[in-house]
Design brief:
It contains five helices and six strands; from the N terminus they run E-E-E-E-H-H-E-H-H-E-H. The protein is α/β, with parallel strands linked by helices. It has two domains: about 1-65, Methylated DNA-protein cysteine methyltransferase domain (Double Stranded RNA Binding Domain); about 85-160, Arc Repressor Mutant, subunit A, CATH 1.10.10. The strands form two sheets. Strands 3-2-1-4 form a four-stranded mixed β-sheet, with no helix packed on it. A two-stranded parallel ribbon has the order 5-6. Keywords: Cytoplasm, DNA damage, DNA repair, Methyltransferase, Transferase. It is an enzyme of class 2 (transferase).
Length: about 170
């Protein structure tokens, strides 16, 4: 059964989507966290169940994040994506709060060849868990803001919140 809830945030209304899990805190594994107008963002389906209580734990963590807490998210995620995407997404989760890295550094971190930077960018762009899996912390090799499914203004807002915002170019 697919569950969903919405949460007001500085990014706009977040859409949280998950599924029941016996091992997840609160009993829900997060499958998607998206923002309005996001490329490939989730859209509520007729057979989904609106259940804000199922997302109470992640909602608390997200509010704390937007209030400036520097805690890593403790969320069980519903498995999605290819093996390559999973490796890239695990590397995203290792980027510390308040820091940035580059697409090339992510490729190196997962042992991908130098020519795989574009594939890394594609995998990052397919990240279904904005904010929680911090793809906003990945910037261009020249230090510029590049690519973000939620839009560059939101990426800059998130990096600014964390004290790591480069200038948009």
């Amino acid at each position: 059964m697919t569950l969903y809830a919405t949460l007001d945030s500085p990014l706009g209304e977040l859409l949280l989507v998950g599924e029941r899990s016996a091992t997840a805190p609160g009993g829900t594994a997060l499958a998607s966290l998206s923002v309005p107008g996001q490329k490939r963002g989730a859209v509520v389906q007729d057979d989904w169940t609106h259940d804000p209580a199922a997302f109470a734990g992640i909602a608390r963590q997200l509010r704390a994040y937007f209030d400036g807490a520097q805690q890593p998210f403790a969320v069980e995620c519903a498995p999605r994506g290819t093996d390559f995407q999973q490796r890239v997404w695990a590397a995203l989760e290792a980027i510390p709060y308040g820091t940035t890295t580059t697409y090339g550094a992510i490729a190196a971190a997962i042992g991908a060849p130098r020519g795989a930077v574009r594939a890394v960018g594609t995998a990052i762009g397919a990240n279904p868990l904005l904010v929680v899996r911090p793809c906003h912390r990945v910037i261009g090799a020249d230090g510029s803001l590049t690519g973000y499914a939620g839009g560059l203004a939101r990426k800059q807002l998130l990096l600014g919140l964390e004290g790591a915002a480069p200038e948009a170019r």
